[in-house]
Request: fold
Amino acid sequence: MKVISIVGARPQLVKLAPVAAAFAQTAHRHLIVHTGQHYDADLSDVFFSGLGIPDPDIHLGAGSGSHGVQTGAVLSALDPVLSAERPDWVLVYGDTNSTLAGALSAVKQHLPVAHLEAGLRSFNRRMPEEHNRVLTDHCADLLLAPTEEAMRHLANEGLAHRSELAGDVMVDICLKVRDAVLADAGPLPSLPDGIDPAQPFLLATLHRPDNTDDPARLSAILATLARLPVPVALLAHPRLVARAEQHGIKLEQGAVRVGTPLPYAGLIAAVLASSGVVTDSGGLQKEAFLLGRACTTVRPETEWIETLEDGWNALVPSPQDLTPTEWATIATRPAPAAARATPYGDGRAAQRVVQLMERAGGLQP
Ligand code: UD1
Reply:
């Protein structure tokens, strides 16, 4: 079987790592196409080197742009690649513009498409990711769902016959890297200047357009972080840096200390060193849960509803609408005492992904 994985943005590289490792254990041919959606070294290259992912076989160099420009650039660059390679499966990951472009290019060439992390829904149609995942699910042939909840969403949309519960490949990589980090007494990750890892601090990220692109909202959210009673290590995504610069908003203020995005092992070490997480990232909500840190999510909803159980994750759509005391109480709450369930699988999802693709191998659109 010949499989082409299409990736382009940071979270897809994290998911690719265990999948590429699982394919490497088989006789299947696994090619990697990097769309170039993320091109900064700290959003892309360090994930390949740090997670032992083979170099991409093909790089499309699509780069940034509006949604249409970016999706269109990937789509048109992919057409000749897929038509030359004619793989048995095209495997797309998650919900980025690269995911949708990969699925569209494949399906229009009658190539079978498998969608990893199928069935997630926020039901928020303002999110670009929500369109990407709904459209990808509806055109893919094999829907690899991470959770029972995702399976239910797919069934509700009439897609049960194409859906399989694979588990979450992010558990595979998160637990593996956690064990390596804990076994290695090496230096702590490069946290922003002014953060002492021996003292309580919150780890924060912010990159969703809904939070970053409206200057009034961005500046209000940053002001709430600045007022927190513990230091906040803000690992600033390029979108956040670009929007803050554009609107003359200072990131480093009050409790906030600004750093750059970390390689995956560095991020896991930083979550373990932190006393809690504040984020709008999907992946980090789950990593906090898996690593036993309380997470506060600056969004009205989450696709990973299992993290809300027992208060491991708390949704705060607009921290600026709370009093400073209410906000500080939520953001600095300790990790719950309750034992966590294991809704995301057993850490062997990538092998199951390969098996499910083998089993469905004869399937043609
Ligand atoms: C994308 C995904 C999002 C995912 C996130 C992880 C979509 C619609 N969104 O969002 O689901 O959570 O990746 O990071 O696909 N930029 C750089 N260097 C880069 C990449 C981007 O400077 O290597 C800057 C550019 O100003 C760019 C902006 O960041 O315009 C946004 O990048 P883009 O890839 O469009 O979306 P993300 O916000 O990264």
